[in-house]
């Protein structure tokens, strides 16, 4: 108890003395600055920055201390270039810690200094750091924009080291958006450039990047080869952050190979190094891969622990507040830039006004000096007034034009920003749609085979237990019916996805459509009689030769005939009609069902649409049939339509172009 009271008292005393300590430290800094001022200020600031660069990889927190101290002295000395170098180092430390919004803030300030000094080298460095911050926050389009601007400046300045660095970062950027071909191309260029510069450490980093690309491509053998080469190079250097990347990649590869123990060893070693330098982004990423590895290896307890740590670090990096802060900083920079442009225009206007005032004064003195020539001076004065009035009007018009141009420029910027946002949203929607289609196709395809096996086994069981009781036989029938229905649904889903993916292989050939209709009429007579439906068939005597895919045409016409019987009441009539008029063959299916409500007509041929009208005999409906009919008819060059009056049935019509001559076998 005494010990606790003693600690509390000590803490209290320390809190009371914090202002005194802070004040003393400020006085110490000012005295130290005065002492340094008489010596080599620039040398001292450069030494602090160099010490920070040395500590960056191993002890980033210490590097931040040196960077902030160098910034303090650079600002007191009003040394713009030294301020830029200190900000660059602070931005690097923020990047290592995963504070990307702070990194972006420093980078924008650096770019402002570069613009003020009109220095292409500083502009190149600033643009690259802005690109890196945007990339880490997953704004890839902005990252590419700034990175290519920086690359152009590096080539212009003949900065081979920066060209190699930008090649490396462009390769990483294309990897993030899964453009593997460009990622490999830029990474290979970076390796060649670093070999030319005789920089094995940077070349080793690029080898590691090449390994990451092949991991994402699934080429694990190539990935392992490149990553082991990178591991050998990195072990001979002291860059801790790069070693964490290599160890993480080795863990990922061995996990994909199936060696979960070795994968965990590499990942754990990489995590230990990342924690030692507080590299939040790397810590989050390694925890995520440890979670995946433990989950695949069946270690549920470890997987839960790793996932919890991953979430904690990931949330701290990408919080909503930081995203808002980043947007605010960008807006502040844009506003400052616009204010500078306005100030420049105001200065130009003031200069023009001063010139105009000088002209007026000179004219007044001239008039006073030539009093003897009063009439002539009056004439000159009149002309001058007229000219001054014209100039004033012209000046007003110019100001209006300048204001209009500024408004147009602002509108263009807004439209450009909106277009970028729409493009990005469309790309995301396209990716999501592809993933959805792929998932539906995979699930449907994987379900189809087991269902077909169920139907086959049910047929065998019927043969095996032919003399089973009525209830068992009914159960067999119900299971077989449900299985067939599910199989039909899956077939239709696969048909829809094949059409959407443009994977339909047509085999167009000349055929007499009457043959298909006649066969369908014969096949569906038993179903119609079962519901006491009179299935009538009226066929034109004219030639009905059309160019179609026999399989898809049969599927289309069968679907429409099946629907007519399905939705027609017991004891009613379904009529099939075929006519050949004006170079077209038209097939009609008319039923006496409930018809289609006017407000539902626009949904008729949509995917997965079920209307209010229901089958009259308890039949199943997937909502896919008519969408498949429409797409098959259209890809064969035909048209499909429907006429219906609610409560009085419907007529579905299919029209194909008629062949001018009957083909010769």
Topology diagram in text:
Blueprint: H1 2-37, H2 41-55, H3 60-77, H4 80-97, H5 100-117, H6 120-136, H7 140-156, H8 160-176, H9 180-197, H10 200-217, H11 220-234, H12 240-257, H13 260-276, H14 280-296, H15 300-317, H16 320-369, H17 374-464, H18 470-500, E1 508-512, H19 513-530, E2 534-539, E3 545-549, H20 550-566, E4 573-581, E5 584-590, H21 625-635, E6 639-644, E7 650-657
Parallel strand pairs: 2-4
Antiparallel strand pairs: 1-3, 4-5, 5-7, 6-7
Number of helices: 21
Helices and strands: which structural class? Answer: alpha+beta
The low-confidence parts are 1-39
Distance between the termini: 109 Å
Total number of beta strands: 7
Which overall shape is indicated by the principal axes computed on the Cα atoms?
flat
The biggest beta sheet is recorded as: 5 strands, mixed
Please state the CA-atom Rg, rounded to the nearest Å. Answer: 39 Å
Residues in β-strands, percent: 5-15%
- The percent of residues in helical segments reads over 70%
- Nearest-integer average pLDDT: 79
Strand order, main sheet: write it out: 2-4-5-7-6
Order of helices and strands: HHHHHHHHHHHHHHHHHHEHEEHEEHEE
């Amino acid at each position: 108890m005494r010990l606790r009271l003693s600690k509390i008292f000590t803490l209290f005393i320390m809190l009371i003395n914090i202002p005194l300590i802070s004040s003393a430290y400020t006085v110490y800094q000012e005295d130290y600055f005065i002492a340094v001022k008489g010596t080599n200020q620039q040398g001292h600031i450069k030494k602090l920055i160099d010490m920070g660069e040395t500590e960056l990889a191993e002890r980033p927190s210490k590097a931040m201390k040196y960077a902030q101290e160098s910034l303090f002295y650079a600002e007191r000395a009003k040394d713009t270039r030294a301020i830029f170098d200190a900000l660059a180092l602070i931005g690097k430390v923020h990047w290592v810690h995963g504070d990307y919004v702070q990194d972006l803030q420093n980078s924008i300030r650096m770019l402002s200094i570069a613009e003020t000094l009109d220095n292409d080298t500083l502009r190149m460095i600033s643009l690259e750091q802005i690109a890196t911050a945007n990339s880490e926050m997953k704004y890839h389009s902005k990252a590419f924009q700034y990175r290519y601007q920086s690359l152009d400046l590096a080539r212009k300045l003949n900065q081979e080291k920066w060209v190699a660095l930008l090649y490396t970062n462009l390769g990483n950027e294309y990897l993030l958006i899964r453009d593997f071909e460009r990622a490999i191309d830029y990474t290979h260029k970076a390796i060649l450039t670093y070999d030319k510069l005789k920089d094995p450490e940077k070349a080793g980093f690029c080898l590691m990047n090449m390994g990451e690309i092949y991991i994402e491509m699934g080429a694990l053998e190539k990935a392992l080869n490149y990553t082991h080469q990178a591991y050998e190079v990195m072990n001979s250097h002291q860059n801790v952050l790069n070693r964490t990347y290599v160890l993480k990649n080795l863990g990922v590869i061995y996990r994909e190979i199936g060696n979960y123990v070795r994968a965990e060893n590499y990942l754990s070693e990489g995590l230990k190094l990342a924690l030692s330098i507080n590299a939040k982004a790397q810590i989050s990423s390694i925890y995520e891969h440890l979670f995946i590895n433990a989950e695949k290896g069946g270690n549920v307890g470890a997987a839960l622990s790793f996932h919890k740590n991953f979430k904690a670090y990931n949330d701290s990096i990408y919080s909503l507040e930081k995203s808002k802060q980043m947007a605010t900083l960008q807006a502040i920079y844009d506003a400052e830039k616009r204010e500078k442009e306005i100030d420049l225009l105001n200065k130009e206007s003031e200069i023009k006004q001063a010139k105009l005032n000088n002209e007026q004064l000179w004219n007044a003195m001239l008039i006073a000096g030539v009093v003897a020539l009063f009439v002539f001076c009056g004439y000159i004065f009149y002309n001058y007034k007229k000219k001054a009035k014209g100039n004033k009007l012209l000046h007003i018009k110019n100001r209006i034009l300048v204001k209009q141009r500024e408004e147009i420029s602002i509108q263009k910027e807004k439209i450009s920003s909106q277009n970028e946002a729409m493009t990005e949203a469309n790309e995301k929607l396209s990716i999501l749609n592809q993933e959805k289609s792929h998932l539906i196709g995979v699930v449907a395809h994987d379900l189809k085979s087991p269902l077909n096996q169920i139907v086959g086994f049910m047929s065998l069981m019927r043969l095996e237990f032919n003399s089973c009781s009525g209830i068992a036989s009914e159960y067999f029938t119900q299971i077989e019916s449900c299985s067939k229905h599910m199989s039909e649904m899956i077939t239709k889903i696969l048909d829809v996805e094949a059409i959407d993916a443009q994977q339909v292989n047509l085999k167009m050939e000349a055929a007499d459509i009457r043959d298909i209709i006649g066969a369908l009429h014969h096949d569906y007579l038993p179903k119609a009689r079962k519901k006491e439906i009179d299935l009538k068939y009226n066929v034109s005597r004219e030639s009905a030769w059309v160019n179609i895919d026999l399989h898809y045409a049969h599927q289309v016409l069968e679907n429409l005939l099946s629907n007519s019987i399905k939705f027609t009441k017991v004891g009613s009539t379904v009529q099939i009609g075929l006519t050949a008029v004006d170079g077209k063959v038209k097939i009609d299916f008319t039923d006496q069902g409930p018809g289609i409500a006017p407000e539902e007509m626009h949904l008729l041929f949509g995917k997965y649409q079920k209307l209010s009208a229901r089958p009259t005999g308890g039949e199943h409906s997937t909502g896919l049939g008519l969408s498949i009919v429409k797409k098959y008819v259209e890809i064969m060059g035909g048209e499909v339509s429907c006429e219906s009056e609610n409560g009085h049935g419907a007529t579905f019509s299919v029209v194909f172009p008629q062949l001018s001559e009957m083909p010769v076998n």
